[in-house]
Automatic annotation (TrEMBL):
Similarity remark: Belongs to the multicopper oxidase family.
Compartments (UniProt record): Secreted, Extracellular space, Apoplast
Name of this protein: Laccase
GO molecular function term, any single one: copper ion binding
Length: 569
């Protein structure tokens, strides 16, 4: 009896400690126009709270985050909390017309959700039009009070947000692309924490500076907030130790280069262990499409500039010339692939979830480019993109999540296929301009999943109109990255390569150029969850679909009603 009473007392104390360590963090976002001077000219942009990037949100695992968004801009918008699980809070996920109608100019909406079962670096951004070029910021989730990191505690933590900049109105750029059917204009610069660096015109004094002390260690929380470019990131003469990706801990991995796709985050430890001096940090594009083979469509143009900041040791002479890192070639796929495939998950670490072994849903999904019929466009077609030849079209009258909750028909169709409608030699350049394979019909087609179903999805790149690395982002879940490779997926031999022990757990996978990736996850969160390419140029083209996860058998597995202030269409 005494032992039972002791155990009960311990359990109550643990529960009280858990509750006490959780806080309510409340912030307000005022989204409005901001005049910014970059690259020799002034540009009116949309920004949050008058800053670029927007405010960094700092919480602890278990906290409740409440963000009141006031839209004082001239555009519709919504905010997505990239990588947050949104357990039973799908109404707060944010993708426009998927989980909510957009917040109209003059409107407001309050996002409220708990940060549960994940720690590390995530971020938030606009999920409407190209507004996330300037509407974005970091979301940092630290362990609960009294819970240490699974790596040596750093002396300081610094968000490093890598972005893109246009000397133009990004909304106008998107509208022009939609009208002509052509790809949107490429960016004019990259930025580090909103600053382009001294390699651009009129930017000598617009460079991010990180001050360090010799002998100390810094946790860099690197976020690729670029719209359309994967990026290489280096610091001259310094190695970095990867300790987390997408708010999931990893086995420490030492590297001199970080590679990130749009939407991905990488946490690295930087030891200030070099001679006192100044060292450039730099980022430029990983242009996976590479040079075009004979008779193959030319790869799209990309921003081939370089942004850089500077790491300055305390005591460094001001007259010293900083050292520049040797950057990889733009098309250095071997370096990118090595980085993506060398990092493993920290099995047994905080919030680690073992790989599910039983599979309920097997899916083979092609991802790539194509064409859609467009009578008003040049040549009667526009560039398109698809998954399993279904080019996603957002609804316009009601969000998909509202249609799911209120059982409204006609908003989406539950017929997204588990396999492509036509099997072909997916990565063979012979098929690059095969007219029988290029046309991608528009639809709002989804895959319906039973609650708690385990899904394995093979993501297969195609060579249609070009090959490139596609960063595919899943809302509402992390998945295990079991394997990646080049060429066509081999269902007999490639499963032998699966890492079922300690694969990476993340929310965005870079499907290799001309290759494939395999992911696996458990659909234990009811709602409508977007899965799409995080290259912004490809999202409006239709490289997306959604999972509709049905409610479970208990109140704890059932989506609650929408908030009273949910925006209406």
């Amino acid at each position: 009896m005494l032992r039972l009473l002791f155990l009960l007392t311990c359990a109550l104390a643990l529960l009280a400690s858990s509750v006490a360590s959780a806080a309510i963090v409340e912030r307000s976002f005022y989204v409005k126009n901001l005049t910014v001077r970059r690259l020799c000219s002034e540009q009116v942009v949309t920004a949050v709270n008058g800053s670029l990037p927007g405010p960094t949100l700092r919480v602890r695992e278990g906290d409740t985050l409440i963000v009141h968004v006031f839209n004082k801009s001239p555009y519709d918008l919504s905010i997505h909390w990239h990588g947050v699980f949104q357990l039973l809070s799908a109404w707060a996920d944010g993708p426009s017309m998927v989980t909510q109608c957009p917040i109209t100019p003059g409107g407001k909406y309050t996002y409220k959700f708990k940060l549960l079962q994940q720690e590390g670096t995530l971020w938030w951004h606009a999920h409407f039009s190209l507004l996330r070029a300037t509407v974005y910021g970091a979301l940092i989730i630290r362990p609960r009070s009294g819970h240490p990191y699974p790596f040596p505690k750093p002396n300081k933590e610094i968000p490093i947000l890598l972005g893109e900049w246009w000397n133009a109105d990004v909304v106008g750029i998107e509208r022009e692309a939609a009208a002509t059917g052509a790809p949107p204009k490429i960016s004019d610069a990259y930025t580090i924490n909103g600053l382009p660096g001294d390699l651009y015109n009129c930017s000598q004094n617009r460079m991010y500076k990180l001050k360090v002390q010799k002998g100390k260690t810094y946790l860099l929380r690197i976020i690729n907030a670029a719209l359309d470019n994967q990026l290489f990131f280096k610091i001259a003469n310094h190695n970095m130790t990867v300790v987390a990706v997408d708010a999931g801990y990893t086995v420490p991995y030492v590297t001199d280069v970080v590679v990130t796709g749009p939407g991905q985050t990488v946490d690295v430890l930087l030891a200030a262990d070099q001679e006192v001096g100044s060292y450039f940090m730099a980022a430029n594009a990983y242009a996976s499409a590479g040079p075009a083979p004979p008779a193959f469509p030319a790869p799209p143009p990309f921003d081939n500039t370089t942004t850089r900041g500077i790491v300055v040791y305390e005591g460094a002479p001001t007259s010293a010339t900083p050292i520049m890192p040797l950057m990889p070639a733009f098309t250095d796929t071997p370096t990118a692939h090595k980085f993506f495939t060398s990092i493993t998950g920290l099995a047994g670490g905080p919030h680690w979830v073992p790989v599910p072994r039983h599979i309920d849903e097997h899916m083979f999904v092609t991802v790539g480019l194509g064409l859609s019929i467009c009578p008003t466009c040049l040549n009667g077609t526009r560039l398109s993109a698809s998954m399993n030849n279904f080019s996603f079209a957002r609804p316009s009258s009601l969000s998909m999540l509202q249609a799911f909750f209120f059982n409204v028909s006609g908003i989406y169709t539950p017929d997204f296929p588990d396999t492509p409608p036509v099997k072909f030699d997916y990565t063979n350049v012979i098929n690059a301009v095969n007219p029988s394979l290029l046309i991608t019909p528009k639809s709002t087609s989804v895959k319906v999943l039973k609650y708690n179903a385990t899904v394995e999805m093979v993501l297969q790149n195609t060579a249609l109109l070009g090959v490139e690395n596609h960063p595919i982002h899943l809302h509402g879940f992390n998945f295990h990255m079991l394997a990646q490779g080049f060429g066509n997926y081999d269902p007999v031999n490639d499963p032998k390569k699966f890492n079922l022990i300690n694969p990476l757990s993340r929310n965005t996978i870079n499907v290799p150029v001309g290759g494939w990736g395999v992911i696996r996850f458990t659909a234990n969160n009811p709602g409508v969850w977007f899965i799409h390419c995080h290259l912004e140029a490809h999202l409006p083209m239709g490289l997306a679909t959604a999972f509709v996860v049905e409610n479970g058998p208990t109140p704890e597995s059932t989506l609650p009603p929408p908030p009273v202030d949910l925006p209406q269409c």
